[in-house]
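Input.
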Amino acid sequence: MSLATVKKTFEEYGRDDPLYAVLSRRGMRHNQWDPDEFFRTGVREIGEVLQYVEGLGLPLGRQQALDFGCGVGRLSQALADHFEQVVGVDIAESMIERARQYNRHGDRVEYLVNTTDSLERLDTASFDFVYTNKTLQHIPPEPAEAYVREFFRVLRPGGVAVFQVPNGRPYRAGSLRAWLYNVRRLHLRRVWKILRGRPPVEIHYIARERIRSIVDESGGRLVDVVDVGKRRKREKNLRYCAAK
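Output.
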């Protein structure tokens, strides 16, 4: 599955309505976000996530953190209040350009464009913390799985990854269910979005058991899984915490 359509969609968003693309709240479309309030949401989110990790009894180094799918830097700017160095990675050059404009931490925060399903520009065992939220859900399953594996490659021993991805029914490659998945997620949804006059953002999922296998195979240890979705959709949207 190609990342080209994902890149195209978020390049357009990054040029036209970047803050809404990152945090799509009602009433904030068409550049209605106040930047100060937008970045305050990142401060609150990172504070809550770090408190959550500490509550699990996981000692967390504070040297370097990775913000995967950084967009305009909402979370990487907040991470820089807690870590010596932060790297933000995004597929869209337009988003990275905005992130650099919003950067208030100088060379303590670095922003990189990454358009492949690897993080080869990042050194092995170089990060204490990897965080991503509302990013993997926009990436087709195969490259999304590759990114999860990369999280554990770039983590130091004892490092922690917290990542969110929707959950769904497992399927085998080449099966009828896999074919139906691709038709619905890669084609019909895009057409429906275009007809409604909205950017054709993809929404994908990876089955919970598949995530567990990937973490194990990558040398990680799954510590906790939290349902962060709506109550009426039980275990449809999960946040994973894993240590290396």
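The first helix runs from residue 4 to 16.
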